[in-house]
Amino acid sequence: MVSTGAVSVGDGQRRARLGLRQLLAPAARAARVEETADAVVGLHASDPATVYLSACARLREPSAVEVERALYEDVSLVKLLSMRRTLFAVTEEFAPYVSAAAARPIAVKERATLLKHLGEFAEGWSEVRLAETERAVLAVLAARGEATTAELGAEVPALRETMLMAVGKPYEAKQSVGSRLLRLLASDGHVRRSRPRGSWLSSSYPWAPVEQWPEVPAREAKAEVVRRWLARYGPGTVEDVKWWTGWTLGDVRRALADVGAVEVALSGGAAGGLVLPGDEAPVAEPEPWAALLPGLDPAVMGWRGRDWYLRPQDVPALFDRAGNAGPTVWWCGRVVGGWAQRADGEVVWRLFEDVGAEAVAAVGVEAERLVGWLGEVRVTPRFRTPLERELVA
Questions:
Q1: Per-residue pLDDT tens for 96-151?
Q2: Is-above-0.90 flag for pTM?
Q3: How many CB atoms lie within 10 A of CB 182?
């Protein structure tokens, strides 16, 4: 990393970059969903609704059909369990880097954990049997094209076996071998989630085989992930990058050095901000903008240090106890409230401060835009937060 010691990128500039680079200012919105995924490096996908809501907030013409095209027809977006062991939807072109940098290391740990659990809580399992079962699953998928875990279990009976987890504890539960093995194959880049059975909000989906991506050296892959993060989220700190990726401090520092990250001062002269080389200059301020972003949106979950866009006193209303963000209202790069959709389809919101008539009007426009493309769909976040529950009550 290179220290400049002179250039400062204050909070106002960080908010301007956020609006422009993450396609939240109306003039910056995209035509295709792949552009929205690249603009945030990856769309959070732990909640199926988040991919659609996050992408459509950044599209000039929001449409669930456009998101489905990329996910299931062109397969130009791929979901991978990757950074922070979180599910992300990334572009097919970027997927080999994310796989090498994050998904496959997770798969190595998943495999070891699964073998350990099979040895402790199931009978007759070994590394050899696990590998044989994986090959059988892939053979069935190659023949069928796609199948749910239950459908695969009908042809590969080993998937129906169960493990009794957390024996004697309040959360003791049986878990099928199939649910764990399919997640492992997905992390290893062998299978992907196909179009869900039901609406786009459904978590019931079949699996489909994936052509193997080109091999990318892990160090090169980590550098590419960090380069893209800095391009869209910079300036950020070492702590921000470590939190977002879930990597060790050593891996983060090595990747930052590999991309030649440049140090800049943040608001108040604080040291430790990092940008890509040549990205120190100020950007033009976008027109005032409002956004209604879903729970777990990349913008609210993009940094560990959030005070420059989120007041600490507002966190308890907007986050659950595990640190998952709920739906947020934004004005010019700051979180100023939260929103929810009621059972009758109405989108309601609450602002935490007086942001002026222009902001209130702009939020209203975004609410109407959201209601317009959702139509008859009703969205309840998977991770519910105090304010979201209160607004729908």
A1: 999 999 999 999 999 999 999 898 878 889 999 999 999 999 999 999 999 999 99
A2: yes
A3: 23
Q: Whose CA is closest to 53, among 291, 323, 389? A: 291
* Residue corresponding to tokens 């939190």: 243
Gap between the Cα atoms of 304 and 290, Å rounded: 23
pLDDT tens digits, residue range 43-70? 999 999 999 999 999 999 999 999 999 9
CATH topology of domain 95-209: Arc Repressor Mutant, subunit A (1.10.10)
Q: Which residues of the chain have pLDDT under 70?
A: 1-6, 166
How many C-alpha atoms does 298 have within 13 Å on its Cβ side? Answer: 33
From CA 196, how far away is CA 208, in angstroms rounded?
11
Domain ranges in the chain are 95-209
- The β-bridge relationship of strands 87-91 and 77-81 is antiparallel
Cα angle 391-203-381, degrees, rounded to a multiple of 5: 15
